[in-house]
Amino acid sequence: MTDRPSWAPQGIDLTVPSVSRVYDYFLGGSHNFEVDREAARVALKAFPGIPKIGQANRAVMRRAVQFAVDRGIRQFLDIGSGIPTFGNVHEVAQAAAPGARVMYVDNDPVAVAHSKAVLADNPDAAIAAADLRDPRSILEHPETRRLLDLDQPIALMLVAVVHFLPDADRPAEIIATLRDALAPGSVMVITHATLLGPTPQAQRGVQEAYQRTTTPLLMRTAAELEPFFDGFDLVEPGIVPLPHWRPDSPVTEDDDTAALHGLAGVGLKA
Amino acid sequence: MTAGPAAADGGGDHGPDHDAYSNLRRFVTIWCRAIYSVTATSMTRGEFEAHLIPQAAVLREALRAERFDPRPAVGVGAALVDAHCTDPEALPSILGVIDAYLVLYCSPGDDLPADQARIRCSRLQHAVAVGFSQALRERTLAEQESLSRAALGAQAEAERALAASEAKFRAVFEGAAVGIGIADMDGNVVEINQAAARMFGGEAHIRRRNVRDWVHPENDPAIRGLNGELMRGERDGYHIEKAYMRADGSVLWANLQVTLLAEAAGPPQYQLALLEDITERRGLLQRLRHQATHDALTGLPNRALFFERLDQALDPDGTVTRIGLCYLDLDGFKTVNDSLGHAVGDRLLVDVAERLRECLTSPDQLVARIGGDEFVALYTDPPGLTAVTDLATRILDALARPVTLDGRDLRVHGSIGIVYGPVGSRGAADVLRSADITMYRAKELGGNRYEVADPDADARAITRHGLTNRLPEALERGEFFVEYQPLIGLENGAVLGAEALVRWGHPVHGVLGPDQFIPLAESTGQIVPLGRWVLEQAARQARTWQSEHPGAGRPPRVNVNLSPIQLHHRDLVAEVAGVLDETGLPPGSLCLEVTESALIGADEDALKPLRRIADLGVAIALDDFGTGYSNLSSLRWLPVSVLKLDRAFTRGMRRHPADPVDLKIVEGIVSLAHSLDLTVTVEGVETRAQAEHLRALGCDHGQGWYYARPGPPEALHRLSLADAG
Ligand SMILES: C[S@@+](CC[C@H](N)C(=O)[O-])C[C@H]1O[C@@H](n2cnc3c(N)ncnc32)[C@H](O)[C@@H]1O
């Protein structure tokens, strides 16, 4: 992939399930094709709680955006933004702070095309087709430059995307590159799949399901996520299961335990 | 039913509205609890509850309405779908809560009979279900449609980008100045650009060919296996200079870079060749290199190339184990050059060079011109010494035929020094010096021959060689000086003058006599400045003697030797006149001695300068008379006034009785000389007996150890004083 000249586009193969469309299916959306649903069903069979994780993930994302807005942040860089469904970052942010600017980035051309359509009338939000593994191409993207002022604090959203980067891609270095471009006062939000809950077997089932996509999934523990926050101060309560990150209301038993299988953490760049 | 919420509505401080509202809230709380967990919303539970209140209110109003109309409930189903309650499993929960609690919490009370309420509730559930299903179907369709549009858009975008990149690639491919060729893994050419077609002189020439077909004799065999290694994955690519056959048969030299092309992560499918036409650059470089390494006149390799090859051959890490080297110096070339001019000399060299080239019989032999008339033949790994001496013989034979230029036959001979031996510790300069020295040895042995170097002979010749090279410097540094040997009048024993004899006070070898360096000076042409210098010295000295002995009989005169080379020097006459002028020496006090061999056979042109000098009043002596085979009758035509008899004639007179034949000969010569008005001087007078005989035979002057050895000018002074006294 890196051998391709930068102007050579990535081909689109709709016969291979895509992470963003599978995720959309988990969220109850219909922005998906049968191959995606098929892959999703395989994963669901292994671990039926996945949609709850997705839901909890979206909820954490919403709370984290609110957290950033409360801190006065009006700019968002959402990498791995996926297919817009409901409660997207720009909706939450712009509802809380009209005029907030949101830059979306995804490497899935269908997700990008869909986002373009959704954002067509929104002057304060845009989408770029770029890859997290090439962070400079994101920072230097003309749309990023146009929309965001990196001299001012931003919220960097890495929501349910870092778990698609194997260690070989050196995720810590990628994040450090992004971090170095951030102004002090910026926040970084990471949510990530974790081993916590399901049995190893179920775990393997989910991972196998993702093997079918172009982007296999990786589980990491809270300790393994810590290095990603290098250069950030983790805000309370640290890296915790999704529902435990600054919940709106006390977590009750009838909240699905499946959501514990995702981790969330927010760092503040000093 | 007593504990039912409807009953509670009636009492306490709460108004009916408030009670109705809190009942509605209760319904919503239950409803929310039932469906929140199957709803994929990011709303919090509280938000979701708040979101459900208007929907519950719609249901309540419909339930309570005077005229029942279930249609608003359709909107409730749709609103739930809008709130991402899209899981089909959610519907039973949604309806279940309505069924169980709507009438309980939202009934208008006694206004509506219980069975009516039930029927209404059922119909509302139905309406909600319809709304839900419809909305879900619409939403699904909408999302599918938007997704498909996005996918199509993305695909179109990707295709556009692909087309754009393809177009860019095409533009780059076709417009590139470098040649680009693509071949499959079997070597079949599938694609070439215009530049490549141009380079090869036509597209048809390369299309549908196989890269393996391109063999060219000029290519290094070492590059042959490269493509195979590439195909077998033993290398990623290669970069070489390669020769190709153009369509018209001429050679194309290309700077070639070949790499493999693979789709994404798959195995390589194509080989990509980038070609840069370097034919001209290479030609130019070769021309430049040829110019830098070849002699412009003869076209032979020059000194630089010769040394390059010799260094290569001598490299202990190289492949050569033995070398043979022939160092050739042309005998007589200098004379041609001096007498016939450079143009002729140059043509002679060109001819010689051509002959030398023809002497080479295999590619391991090289002949180079390394100096004016010096050539070397280098033979790498000769089979034996004989092979090298054969080469030398071929060279000598080639030179044996005279060179005909403008109808004139010019003869040049060669002297060759051969070095032969294993490659070892010797450096190129060392080897060449040894060959040079050996060549001199061949020259000394008469020339027109070769000699093979041996270390002893080298040692002997080294001095000679060194001397030759040092001559010009020695003259500049004043290392030469002149000694004088008195000339005695045999009649009365008076000192008449002296012969000037040049010496070299060599800083290393001590005082050297003329026979040790004059031939060298002659062979290098250095004799001209040296002879001029001696003439000046001698004339000045004679003038000094004369001023020191005014009026003491005849003024002392001085004899100076003239080399045949000087005789051919065109400024000779002017120089002699100039020296006489400068020193104020009367011409009659100068005698120039010329060897017999230089004059015999000389034509009138060659004698002309001598006649001019004689015309000045300068005496000319025929030196070493009797050694050649001179035609005595020719003496009358020569501008000569003195005969100097060679010492060979006096040898037989050293003792009494003298050799009668010698006596007879000398007597005859003397009488002939006198009859031609020539004075006779005898050299090598060593004994009193000789002196007596010679006087008796009528010789005029004598010279030799019997009277005095050559010595400093003051010695003559003392001698003549003694003589006077
Ligand atoms: C699970 S979705 C997350 C969407 C959204 N951030 C959320 O949490 O709801 C992951 C998204 O990340 C994208 N993605 C995966 N690897 C990526 C990469 N290396 N660079 C950019 N996007 C990537 C996928 O295309 C997909 O849309």
Structure report:
The complex is a heterodimer of chains A (270) and B (725). Chain A has 270 residues and is of the alpha/beta class. Chain A has a single domain, classed as Rossmann fold (3-Layer(aba) Sandwich), CATH 3.40.50. In chain A, 36% of the residues lie in helices and 15% in strands. Chain A has helices spanning 19-26, 34-46, 50-70, 89-96, 109-119, 135-139, 142-147, 171-180, 200-211, 222-225, and strands at 75-79, 101-106, 125-129, 155-159, 187-193, 232-234, 240-241, 262-269. In chain A, strands 1, 2, 3, 4, 5, 6, 7 and 8 form an eight-stranded mixed β-sheet that branches. The model of chain A is unreliable at 1-10 (pLDDT under 50). Chain B is 50% helix and 19% strand. Chain B has 25 helices and 21 strands. In chain B, β13 (480-489) and β14 form a beta hairpin. The longest helix of chain B is centred in the first third of the chain and has 62 residues, at 114-175. Chain B is rod-shaped and about 190 Å long. The A-B interface holds A 1, 3, 5, 7-12, 14, 21, 26-33, 51-52, 54-55, 58-59, 61-62, 83, 85-87, 109-114, 116-117, 248-249, 254, 256 and B 33, 37, 40-47, 84, 86-87, 139-141, 143-144, 146-147, 149-151, 153-155, 157-158, 161-162, 164-165, 168, 264.
Helix/strand layout:
The complex is a heterodimer of chains A (270) and B (725).
Chain A: H1 19-26, H2 34-46, H3 50-70, E1 75-79, H4 89-96, E2 101-106, H5 109-119, E3 125-129, H6 135-139, H7 142-147, E4 155-159, H8 171-180, E5 187-193, H9 200-211, H10 222-225, E6 232-234, E7 240-241, E8 262-269
Parallel strand pairs in A: 1-2, 1-4, 2-3, 4-5
Antiparallel strand pairs in A: 5-8, 6-8, 7-8
Helix pairs in contact in A: 1-2, 2-9, 3-4
Chain B: H1 5-9, H2 16-36, H3 45-64, H4 72-82, H5 90-106, H6 114-175, E1 179-184, E2 189-192, H7 194-200, H8 226-231, E3 237-245, E4 251-262, E5 268-277, H9 279-293, H10 303-314, E6 322-331, H11 333-340, H12 342-359, E7 365-369, E8 374-380, H13 385-400, E9 403-405, E10 408-410, E11 413-422, H14 428-444, E12 449-452, H15 455-476, E13 480-489, E14 495-506, E15 510-512, H16 514-524, H17 527-548, E16 557-562, H18 564-567, H19 572-583, E17 590-595, H20 596-599, H21 604-616, E18 619-625, E19 642-645, H22 648-651, H23 660-675, E20 679-682, H24 688-696, E21 701-702, H25 713-724
Parallel strand pairs in B: 11-12, 14-16, 16-17, 17-18, 18-19, 19-20, 20-21
Antiparallel strand pairs in B: 1-2, 1-5, 3-4, 4-5, 6-8, 6-11, 7-8, 9-10, 13-14, 13-21, 14-15
Helix pairs in contact in B: 2-3, 2-5, 3-4, 3-6, 4-6, 5-6, 11-12, 12-13, 14-15, 15-16, 17-19, 19-21
S-adenosylmethionine binds at residues 19-20, 23, 57-58, 61, 79-82, 106-108, 111, 131-133, 159-161, 164, 215 of chain A.
